[in-house]
Amino acid sequence: MFNKSTFVTLFALFLLGSLTYTIKQKVIELDNDLAQVHRNIAHYQESMHILNAEWAYLTRPSRLQALVEEHTGLQHCPGVSLVSYEEVFQQDDELYQAQESLESSVRLASMRR
After folding, report:
1. What's the rounded Cα separation, in Å, for the pair 34 and 40?
2. How far is CA 69 from CA 57, 80, 112, in A?
3. pTM above 0.70, yes or no
4. Measured between alpha carbons, how far is residue 10 from residues 5, 20, 38, 49 in Å?
């Protein structure tokens, strides 16, 4: 009643069906994993948002200044330069001239040998 080709066809259909079912279950599992990853990402993004807000609160300049005054006793320093702009370049010129005189004396000493 059943010949060999019928059994081979039924066996092939059974294999294809079980393969399809296995692939479907694997896809469902991967979809669940992907959904979990998306939930984790949303959770971490929300945590980062909260931490950024807390950091902005904690690093407010007025708050930090009050803490410094409270715990260290330091006073606010006005934004006045201690050295003028010209004095900085004058010191650079003096340093450059001193370095040149040192190099020339080293050259003279090496020539005398």
Report:
1. 10
2. 18, 20, 63
3. no
4. 9, 15, 42, 58
Please write down the HEC assignment for all residues of 65-95: HHHHHHHHCCCCCCCCCCCCHHHHHHHHHHH
Domain map (residue ranges) of the chain: 1-74, 82-113
Question: Measured between alpha carbons, how far is 9 from 12 in angstroms, rounded to an integer?
Answer: 5
- Residues 69, 75 contacting (CB under 8 angstroms): yes
Q: Digits of tens for pLDDT over the chain (113 positions)?
A: 678 989 999 999 999 999 999 999 999 999 999 999 999 999 999 999 999 999 999 999 999 888 888 888 776 666 665 666 666 666 666 777 777 776 666 555 565 55
Structure tokens at 38: 């998306």
Q: Is 23 helix (H, G, I), strand (E, B) or coil?
A: helix
CA angle 20, 25, 29 (to 5 degrees): 145
